Each structure stands twice: as C-alpha cells, then as structure tokens.
Amino acid sequence: VTEPGRWQSATPSARLARHGDAMLANGGLANGGLANGGPANAGSANLADVLERVLDKGVVIAGDIKINLLDVELLTIKLRLLVASVDKAKEMGIDWWEHDPTLSSRAALDAPQSEPTSEPTDGAGPAEVRR
Amino acid sequence: MTAVSYAYAVARALDDTEIAGLTGVDGTAVRLVRHADLVVVVSSVPLADLDESRLERLDELAAVARAHHAVVHAVAAVSVALPFRLATAYQGDDGVLEVLRREHGRFRAALDRVAGRVEMGVKVYADQHATLVPAAPEGTGATPGKDYLRRRREARRSAEDAWQAAAAAARRVDTALGALAADRRHHRPQSSRLSGVSGDNVLNAAYLVDAGRVAEFTALAAGLGGAGTRVEVTGPWAAYSFALVGRSG
Description:
The complex is a heterodimer. Chain A is an all-alpha fold. Chain A has helices at residues 18-25, 47-56, 62-67, 74-85, 87-91, 105-109, 126-130; one strand spanning 8-9. Chain A contains 7 helices and 1 strand, in the order βααααααα. Chain B is of the alpha+beta class. Chain B has 7 helices and 9 strands. In chain B, strands 1, 2, 3, 4 and 5 form a 5-stranded antiparallel sheet that branches. Chain B is elongated, with a radius of gyration of 23 Å. The model of chain B has no long low-confidence stretch (mean pLDDT 86). Strand 1 of chain A pairs parallel with strand 9 (229-237) of chain B.
C-alpha cells in the first residue's frame, strides 16, 4: 500500500552510468548540459521512460520519409511499423502509433493542435509510409 | 557485413577526445560527422544487428534503446545535444552529412532552445487501492446483499473522489512546475503494465528546465503531492521531448 502523498524520486543521486562517468572524467563539464543538472540517469532510468523517449520522441527528419525512403531513415520507419505490429507492445501499453499522424490516418484527422510535434501532420499517412 | 551509420544525436561541436571510448549499439565505437559548428554522433552498426526479428523482442529492443540513450546522455553531458529517434540510420556518413547540411539551420535553432537546459520528467499517480471494493466487515447484519451494494456505491464514490483529487493534483503540479520551466510537453500517461508502477498515471509531463534550477524544480515537485496522489520526478534527461525540428521540404 502506497503512502498517500509520498514523493518518490526515480533517480537517487550518485547513479551515474558508466558512459556518463567516462564523459565526466574526461573533463567535459562545460556547456551547461546534463553535467550541471544533478543526478544522471543513463543507466538507472526506468525502461518505460527510456522507451517512451527513444521510440516516441527525438528528432525525426520528417521530409525524408517521403523524399528519400529508400536510403534515409529507412530503419526508423521500419522499426516504427514493426513496433506498431507487435501485439506484445500493445499488451504492454505501447500504443502511441494509434495517435501518430504518420502511422494512423485516424490520428492525422484528430491530431491535437496543442501538442507540437516534429511529425508532418498531413500527407504522410500509412499509404506514404508503405510506399 | 553491411554496416549503417547509426545516428544518436546532433550536437554543437565537440572534440573527438570528448567521445573517446564511448560506445553505442552493440558496443560499436562512436564517432563524429562534422559540418560547420555542428556534429552528428554516429557509429557503424552492422545492419543485421538492427534486424526486425531482433527488435521484436523486448529484451533486445531494450538493449538497443539503452545503448542509444547512453550515448545521447553522455553527449548531452558535454555539449548541447538533440537526440535522434531510435534506429535512425543512414547507409553511410555521406547520408548523415547531407542531412546535417540541409537541416543545419533548423538543428541550430533547436539546439539554441535547449542550450543550458535539461528535460525533467514528472508523473502524477493516483493511488489505485482507493478503487477496490472494501471487504465486508466481520459480523455483517441480516442483509448481505444490501451491504454489498452499499459498499460498491461507497467504493465507486471514493474512486471518483480519488480521481478528482488526482486530476486536481495534476493541474496543481503542472501549474507550479510549468512556472519554473522554459517549456513543457504533455505526454500520454504510461501504462502500469509497462512501467510496473502502481497507481493510475494521471499526468505524464516533461519540462525544459534551466540546468541551474533543477534542484529548485525537484524540491518544488517534492512538496506537490497530496492525499492519494504521488508525484514522481525523473531526470535530468537530454531534451528528448523538445527535439522539435521544423518540417523539412
């Protein structure tokens, strides 16, 4: 039973991943990046948080999907279609493609305007992705 | 074996020494593709390693995801970086260079927005135990059916109360933390089946926070929980949720 109002931090301090340690040891503390931000989380982060970010966020060179499908970002597209087809993923609650304009024409129609996205919001439905 | 140039992040210029020893997917050595004042951090990953049948398996997908994230995290620690989405790969460094050239202006603008800032993840959970039908008290009277319905009603009311409280807490948290942040994004709530966390996730948000204010942000978040709700903070993360790059073409 969870205590009401209890606050939990998923990232206790001093949990630096090996990579992060190496980078920090190399003296790269400049630039106000994560090094100045407190505890790092490369190794300790919850898998759901990591998957959410690496699969659903991040830079997508949207134009390439249509222009250069044969040699650019092919794997990204394949992977995303792949994930979309995995029943197991859905069982686990990974279902964002249903809301993703590039993967679902339904989502393209009712994509919320309030949520900025790097995805194209028109003309890139499943038909284009399959092409 | 055919290898592809797997792109982890675009970043402001950094030295090769700053990524020395850094490895990515399947332990492949990371290198830089440069153009002007920006770099793309890549490694040569055998195409077979990104095979679909491999990535269909959650443990394998998790390994690739963590390797990707580790590089992004390390680069963001020494420079200003924007992550690429998982499994963004090009047939060679020429393809990477072409994109870096073409998108240079957009990349630089996006990097300027996140410079000196980090992403903090915040989730608000409503406790689930409030929604369970309470067990019958011992020695209930002569109307067990009525008692059961009454308990159901009360349970439903308490579940609604819990949900209302959680929604109010989510608004309170978002307002307070948003005021401290340069930008915010609301993500879909996470399924407890994937996260393994108990409780209903009623807010799943990301805030872009000045690196110097992370402690303040975390302390503020710590005080925002309420009865039946829980606030969880993760990060600092590289600015995954703010890697907005305008549409090209």
